[in-house]
Specification:
The complex is a heterodimer.
Chain A (H helix, E strand, L loop, with lengths): L1 H29 L1 H8 L16 H11 L4 E7 L5 E7 L2 H6 L5 E6 L5 E6 L7 H12 L3 H29 L14 H15 L1 H33 L16 H11 L3 E7 L10 E8 L8 E7 L5 E4 L4 H9 L1 H4 L4 H39 L7 H4 L5
Antiparallel strand pairs in A: 1-2, 1-5, 2-3, 3-4, 5-6, 6-7, 7-8
Chain B lengths: L1 H31 L3 H22 L8 H7 L1
Classes of the chains: A alpha+beta, B mainly alpha.
Chain lengths: 389, 73
């Protein structure tokens, strides 16, 4: 029991500061969709009943008319708004030499109307949310930050498990949920810590675990992309990119990919590019169209001269498992009430962390007081926490 | 042996029930895709919070007659 107590104390202490940061930055992130929408003053067209989405060919034609002779890099659907972005550059070679030469056109996804243009690095209306997300995901420290926070998440899981083990002896003589309000403040906070911790146990464990999985998903996805996707493209390595004047219809390429993988929608379509992707193919990235499968990304290669399907690459099982469990971290799959519940559970977790810290500080003060009095028989930490009388 | 079984039940029946409800709530909205499943999910996830609120707002007296009522639910 002493070991569990030590484990609970030290794992919690190491991760508490970071967990508090994660809980606090997580609060606005729960509502990032709503906040983005609120900050975004663009006016979007409503979907017309019976009308189909605008053909990508039409958007491509608009882009080419505005910038004759330029190359299209890719088209992709926005995560949060009904917008299709088109990335363009003076040429693919120019983009390789100077990434800042990229610029973007934004189209309404329902009507195909041109919404606006932005250069690369232009500040977005949602930069506050991106700032928060960067802090929440990686402490502004790239992959190292991701792995560090992943480790903190693991410690959080250990402290939850050890907390459950300690819950037994600490509440043996108490009815569930007893908050001894007449006793000292310390006892009251201990009871609150126990109640909050045990009642939100499953939620904290799920969100903590999926948080760690999210941190792992990014590097694993990158590794998979590097190995599998690169292997798929190996036969075309070293060939020159097709001239964009001779490409088949991008809309037909997307339709072909959607037929190959039913139950998906388009995430993006990358035009043939020898430096990034295939020189001869459209690379169409598809995603599932339900909350469960929304983060399953499958690339499909479509021959850009003939429009024929060349290959479908499926994610390996471990990545699929990771991606399927990711929504459980965000709470964004069950309407606004679920987000409100997420917020309350997050607040309960903040209270659990805070009360834990309070109990530790209080105990340290008492320990040092005791140590002054009786140096030779320091009381055990478990006794000091006053299990129920 | 019997006594420890009773203690276990008294201590752990609520935590286990709340954990099961939470997991059900988390999964029902994810797998159910709208409709009744969302409602069930909201209800299931609200219960742990209501239980906390109930105990914080109106602390239960230790070892009162409530104990029996808790168990009979």
């Amino acid at each position: 029991m002493r070991i569990w107590s030590q484990l609970h104390r030290w794992c919690s202490l190491v991760c508490t500061a970071f967990l508090l940061l994660l809980c606090v930055t997580g609060l606005p992130l729960i509502f990032s969709g709503e906040i983005d929408h609120w900050l975004d003053h663009s006016h979007y067209d409503l979907p017309q009943p019976g009308a189909s989405a605008p053909s990508l060919d039409r958007l491509v034609a608009i882009g080419r008319r505005m910038y004759p002779g330029q190359d299209i890099i890719s088209l992709f659907a926005d995560d949060d708004a009904p917008v299709i972005h088109m990335r363009m550059a003076p040429s693919l070679a120019a983009l390789r030499d100077n990434p800042a030469s990229e610029h973007r056109l934004r189209f309404d996804a329902h009507s195909g109307r041109l919404l606006g243009e932005e250069s690369r690095g232009a500040s977005h209306s949602n930069s506050v949310m991106e700032f928060l997300l960067d802090l929440h995901r990686r402490l502004f420290a790239g992959l190292a930050g991701e792995l560090f926070l992943g480790t903190m998440g693991l410690l959080f899981i250990v402290s939850i498990v050890s907390g459950v083990v300690l819950y037994g002896p600490f509440t043996r003589r108490l009815d569930f949920g007893t908050v001894r309000s007449r006793r000292s403040r310390r006892v009251r906070w201990l009871d609150l810590h126990n109640l909050l911790g045990i009642a939100t146990l499953a939620w904290a464990l799920v969100v903590g675990t999926t948080g760690v999985m999210n941190e792992l998903a990014t590097p694993l996805f990158a590794v998979w992309q590097k190995t599998e996707v690169t292997a798929m493209l190996a036969p075309y390595k070293g060939m020159a990119s097709l001239d964009q004047a001779h490409l088949t219809s991008p809309q037909r390429a997307v339709d072909q990919a959607l037929r190959a993988l039913p139950g998906t929608k388009m995430l993006s379509i990358a035009f043939p590019d020898a430096n990034d992707g295939s020189p001869w193919h459209y690379m169409v990235w598809l995603r599932g169209d339900t909350p469960l499968t929304a983060r399953l990304f499958d690339p499909v290669l479509i021959d850009a001269r003939t429009g024929e399907l060349t290959a479908v690459v499926k994610m390996p099982w471990y990545l699929r498992a990771l991606e399927v469990s990711r929504p459980l971290h965000f709470g964004d799959y069950g309407g606004l009430p679920l987000k409100v519940l997420w917020t309350l559970l997050d607040l309960a977790t903040i209270l659990t962390l805070g009360s834990g810290l309070y109990l530790w500080i209080g105990k340290r003060n008492r320990m040092s007081a005791h140590a002054e009095c009786e140096r030779h028989s320091p009381p055990s930490p478990v006794e000091l926490l006053e299990p129920a009388k | 042996m019997k006594r420890s079984h009773a203690t276990f039940r008294r201590q752990w029946s609520w935590p286990i029930a709340l954990a099961v409800l939470t997991v059900f709530g988390l999964l029902s909205a994810l797998l159910g895709e709208g409709g009744i499943w969302w409602g069930l999910s909201w209800t299931a996830l609200a219960i742990p919070l209501l239980v906390i609120a109930r105990h914080v707002v109106r602390p239960v007296k230790q070892r009162g007659p409530r104990h029996a009522r808790h168990r009979s639910r």
